[in-house]
Amino acid sequence: QNSKFSRCTMRVGTPARTVPMRREDSDDDEGSALTVTPGTTGDLDGLAAALSGIELASKAPENSSGYQGVGNPGGPDTILARALAGIAEDASTPTPPASAQPRRSPRLKPFPATPAGTGGVGDGEEFRKPKLVVRYKRENVTPAASAANTPQKGTPKESFETARESFSEVKADEDGQEESSPAPVSVATLASRYVVVEPEVDEEEKEKVRQPPSTSPAVKPPVHRKPRSKVKTKPRDPSSFAAFREMRREQVKATAKASDAEEEADALASMFEKKVSVEDTPSRRGGRKAPARAVREGDDVGVVGLCYSDVMELHEGPSHHFERPARHAVTVARMRKDGLEEKCDIIAAREATDEELLTCHSREHLEYVASAFDRTSDEKVQGVGDIYWTEHTERCARTAAGSACAATDAVAGGTHHRAFAVVRPPGHHAECARAMGFCFYNNTAVAARAALAAHPHVNRVLLLDWDVHHGNGIQDVLYRDSRVMYVSLHRYGDGFYPETGAMEETGTGEGVGYNVNVPWTEKGLGDADYLAAFDLVIDPIAKSFDPDLVIIAAGFDAAEGDPLGGMKVTDQGYALMTERLVSLAGGKCVAALEGGYGLTATASAAAATLGAMLGYATPPLSSRRRPKRSTVETLGKIIEVHKERWPVLASEEHQRRFRSALEMTKVAGKERNAGELEN
Fold it and tell me: 3-class DSSP state for residue 668?
């Protein structure tokens, strides 16, 4: 039947099963060695262990050519040899793709029963196909060609080489006749005779493996490492390492001090020669260096004072409240970080006296603030709305007003040229007999009245308030006073707090014309709008007033980024406004913190204001940044209100300046429209 399969029956004392195994081809070389590819070693060992001691017999069709059945000489040995050779040949045959292999039904029909009397094992029983057929690769090679066919790259293959003589004592002659029939050989004995042959590798390949390919300098440049210092820095005695470390630290400190002294001497020499000091100002607490600042040439700044105290951080309300101690702490920290504090003379903070507070507030109001907190209650924070009380409220409020008075007294007395008081709680909403809007005592109004009372040469004080909210408390206290001119730039209308500050509110009695309100009826105004107010309204009136002292109610809630203000004034804008104010009154200027509830925006704007007081130059606004037309129109209305009391506003020169500003807004509007059309 020329079938390539014979049936090999195993006798193991259990019902017999047949295992199909491949026969060798008729033209195979009897003396060729067998080679099995890697990965089959474990399978072959397992097979040998499982079939150890099993006798092999054969049952094949009688008409198969070149086949000797049971009873013929050399039958079992020849069958075993041919079976193993067939396993190796089957392993060498490439496996066809899964799509090319015929699929068989998982439910196979049983083979027909073996006819009785045929001599097969299990006469009359059914033959069943085994669940698994293991086939191994067969490859005919000669000993000379074994090394030549070994792969040169990759992992060397493991091969098993054996000859027919290793498991059979009898060979078939050329005529196909065999001498004798040896006893059956066990599979374990056959497996133990396999020998592992290492593949031969060419010497050139070995050299390639030993020497990795060199990297071209153009692709990856070599790494140049800094050579290690030959100076021995560690002491020989390990026990003296602590002393050695301290010695090194002292050397570093001494070197740093000498370097700092040399830098300071160079800076002083440069300042005297060029009258300009440009340097990086480090922070006292090791923060980042502040940007280089330049003092204007020929500007004699004098002594600039800075007043603050941690006592004012004791007044702490609910966590969600905008007026919180962090406003004070972050502002002072920013001034330290920018190197501004070390350039200032620290003015000691103090509490305001009753005499100073009574210049603006009633006796009943002082008693109310002192007794408003109920110390018998278990609540640590009391009050509702925009005012809250703690056990430290009265002390903090007095310290805020007293610190503003201390800074003003230092400038008015001549010991300091300018000063900045970082105080809280704020004060410009506090009226004569009423605490409101986070405020208890009116800090700047009290400072102005105290300076007028304590210094006879101070007769006129300009109090400018650029807080985004109108200072209704300052206006209430000073509305009849002609010695103090109050100017406020604030949002007005649409229910914006405190809903006061109309441009028609100019004062009463002797104070008529000394209360100047600049109400903004829209939000989103920036530097150009505020500086336009200075150009067209504030500067002409202030120069006509000719103050002896300038006090700034420095609220920074109009700064860009403040959660309440809705305006877009930048640090540059605050610095430029400060420069305008320090040009008045011979440079005697005091600033006291008011509002400002975005921590970063407030701290940054306050630092810019103090920098301008120290004489640091600020670049002017770009010519492309122009005020809105609605801003100039509002300023025109304010001019009409105050030109009777201040004739400078009605002068031909000022009217020409106003018309020029109005024309500039038209040009800016045309440019904006043209840009929109182009886009």
Answer: helix
